[in-house]
């Protein structure tokens, strides 16, 4: 039961989500290049000034266009960040598709772990300001859908991969293991990309050891449920 003294929320106190749809899909070569330039500049600024201080005025200035011209492509900074996040998710999806094409049934577990960590880490390293982008996807309401889509995509696809490498478990159990895999690898990759070469190598080695312990326990173990 609510307290009668509590002030009810009014429409003015409820935050309205901003649109994250681009103004229009660029079709001309010049427009496509300009839209990509906006995304590239935003990546650089996200890394240098951070999410809170990032705004369309700063982005437009660095791109060398007016704010009005910027709005021809994106209505606000969240729409730009959404486009960046969607592009990064597309690259993660490509990695998951590549993994499905491997000869997983014949692949030794150690080789699988080496290859799956290496291909994923390359994708994290290719995305500039990936840590800040991921933080934005988690904390900004307009971008939360991307964070949820990322998790669902990795969990569902890796559950299929785990079946092929020998996890003879019910799909719900494989998804549970895949969620743990996601939480461990995702957080570790975000650390590794910001470490120097020697520390990154040691962290990656520890990650591979953890994955070996996790997966070896379940490979060829039949569910008794």
UniProtKB/TrEMBL annotation:
Residues 55-74 bind DNA. One of its GO terms (molecular function) is transcription cis-regulatory region binding. InterPro entries: Homeodomain-like_sf, HTH-type_TetR-like_transc_reg, HTH_TetR, TetR_C_15. Residues 32-92 form the HTH tetR-type domain. Residues 1-26 are annotated as: Disordered. Signal peptide: none annotated. The keyword DNA-binding applies. Keywords: DNA-binding, Transcription, Transcription regulation. PANTHER family: HTH-TYPE TRANSCRIPTIONAL REGULATOR BETI, HTH-TYPE TRANSCRIPTIONAL REGULATOR RUTR. This is TetR/AcrR family transcriptional regulator. It comes from Marinomonas algarum.
């Amino acid at each position: 039961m609510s307290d009668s003294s509590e002030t009810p929320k009014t429409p003015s106190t409820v935050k309205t989500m901003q649109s994250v749809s681009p103004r229009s899909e660029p079709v001309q070569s010049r427009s496509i290049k300009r839209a990509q330039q906006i995304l590239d500049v935003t990546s650089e600024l996200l890394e240098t000034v951070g999410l809170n201080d990032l705004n369309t005025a700063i982005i437009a200035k660095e791109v060398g266009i007016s704010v009005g011209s910027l709005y021809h492509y994106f209505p606000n900074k969240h729409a730009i960040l959404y486009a960046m996040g969607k592009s990064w998710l597309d690259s993660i999806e490509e990695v998951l598709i590549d993994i499905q094409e491997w000869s997983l049934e014949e692949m030794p577990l150690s080789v699988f772990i080496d290859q799956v960590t290496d291909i994923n880490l390359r994708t994290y390293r290719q995305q500039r300001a990936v840590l800040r982008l991921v933080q934005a996807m988690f904390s900004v309401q307009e971008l939360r859908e991307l964070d949820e889509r990322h998790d669902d995509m990795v969990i569902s696809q890796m559950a299929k991969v785990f079946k092929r490498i020998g996890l003879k478990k019910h799909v719900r159990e494989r998804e549970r293991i895949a969620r743990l895999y996601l939480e461990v690898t995702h957080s570790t990759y975000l650390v590794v990309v910001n470490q120097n070469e020697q520390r990154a190598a040691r962290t990656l080695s520890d990650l591979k050891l953890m994955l070996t312990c996790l997966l070896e326990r379940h490979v060829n173990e039949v569910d008794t449920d």
